[in-house]
Amino acid sequence: MDKQKQKKKNKKWKTFGDIGKNEEGAILYGRHMQDQQHELADRGIEIITETKEVARNTAERVHEQTVQLKKIDNNLSEIDNELSRATRIMRRIGRRVMTDKYVMCLLVLVLIAVVIAVLLALEKRGNFFFLQLHMICFICVCKMLSVVVKHICLFFLKNVDNSKVRILLQNLSTVSILYLLTIAEELKQSQLIKYNIFYSKIFADMQHMEDEVKKVVVEIRSQCGPSGVREGDINVVKSKIAFAKNKIKMMNIEKRQLDANSSRKWSQIIQDLRDQVTDIESTLNWQGIKTDTEETNLNSLMCVFKKKAEEDAINYGRSQQDLQHKLAEDGLEMMASMQDIAVDTTQKMKEQTEKLVDIGKTLDETENELGRATRIIKRMGRKMLTDKYIMVLIFLVFLGIIAIIVLSALKNKIH
Questions:
Q1: Would 1 be classed as within a structural domain?
Q2: Which of 107, 260, 306, 349 is least surrounded, with the fewest CB atoms within 10 Å of its CB?
Q3: Is residue 355 part of a domain?
């Protein structure tokens, strides 16, 4: 029931068409609008504060992610350096292996040439070892074919290059922080501009009312004069005094919407105007002219300045309504923009999280590849040593064969 009564009361003063019928209701509605404006201002400050908190928390999270990204970048740089080092070692090992192969091949060819020369010499002398020439040549040809096949395999392995893993990371936290802090500062500045426009409107209205009161006071003092007020001007003077009091009262109401410093300043101005009007009333009382009561002053005001007061009040009320609607729309726009910013920030955080997950997977794959490369290098080292041992054994076998051939030839020559 209380809410329904409050709604009816607010509906009663929804417009300013009936302001002339009940001035007290208009004042109450003005105070109600003032409370709503204060609530809107407080809510705007809360929104800006919440925005700052969200921006600060998001900036901290982005900073943490940036630190993690820098660590990952450093790890990737170390991995890249290790891969480059491993690549250089592999190339060096490959060159050494190829050099050893070429040297061994040359030695084998030299041995084969020596064997052929010995066999040719024995053939000229009619030695029976000439019968084994075909078998020796067959063995040499098989060995040469095996060497050629190995060289072909090494050629294909040499053309397989290890690709370098390089991932370029962008510093997104700094841009969010700056982006979020810039958005928060823009919202704050826009809110301050709106408040300044609102306060400038109030200052202009109060300045206008102050000028009117000063003008009325000057007119009353000019009409009083040294000889007093004429009888025909008494009602006009009373109406002007009532008009000045009403303006002072409206200034006192408008003063409540200002901040503390401006309110103190205008309180002093209002008190000075009130003292001037009180001084004029005291002067009239000494002259035997009694001023009317507050109710009579209001009735006189409504009779003499009714149209002007109604038009001013209606226009002022409409401007206040328009200002309230504009503030409400601006608040909705701010909330919508904040929601969009929150959605964008969440999306960016999600993308960064996905990137971190991908980078983690890449690091795992890189670690596996490094382990595999280490095993391959060890295997190649073992194969290289094995090949050297085999080549040495083959070389020794050829030397043994040559020694046997030479010794056999010498024995046959002696016999």
A1: no
A2: 260
A3: yes
Collapsing DSSP to helix, strand or coil, 256 comes out as coil
DSSP designation for 18: T
Task: Give average pLDDT by consecutive 10-residue segment, the chain, 415 residues.
Answer: 44 43 61 69 70 70 73 74 75 74 70 63 49 47 50 47 39 45 55 65 80 82 66 72 82 75 81 82 67 48 52 68 70 69 71 75 76 78 78 77 72 62
C-alpha distances in angstroms, 14 versus 28, 39, 263, 318, 330? Answer: 12, 18, 28, 10, 21
Cβ partners under 8 Å of residue 210, min gap 6:
251, 269, 273
Name which of 197, 191, 175 is nearest 47 in CA terms: 191
Q: Is 12:25 a contact under the CB 8 Å cutoff?
A: yes
- pTM for the model: 0.36
In a domain, residue 137? The reply is yes
**Six-digit token string for 112:** 């084969």
Q: Output the DSSP codes for 176-234.
A: HHHHHHHHHHHHHHHHHHHHHHHHHHHHHHHHHHHHHHHHHHHHHHHHHTTT---GGGH
Task: For residue 243, give the nearest of 186, 312, 302 by alpha carbon.
Answer: 302
- DSSP for residue 258: S
**pLDDT at residue 26, rounded to an integer:** 63
In 232-271, which positions are buried (b, 16+ CB within 10 angstroms) versus exposed (e)? eeeeebbbbbbbbbbbbbbbeebbebbeeeeeeebeebbe
State both tokens at 252.
């006192």
Structure-block tokens of residue 194: 């709106």
Tally of domains within the chain: 1
Position 32 in a domain: no
Q: How far apart are CA 281 and CA 220, in angstroms?
A: 10
Closest CA to 26 of 309, 295, 270: 309
Q: Return all residues near 297 (Cβ < 8 A) that are at least 6 apart.
A: 238, 241, 242, 245, 246, 291
What own/partner pairs with CB < 8 Å and gap ≥ 24 does 29-34 have? 29/317, 30/253, 30/317, 30/320, 31/253, 31/256, 33/320, 33/321, 33/324, 34/256, 34/257
- Report DSSP state, residue 16: S
In terms of residue numbers, what domain contains 48?
39-159+169-414
The CA distance from 57 to 51, in Å, is 10
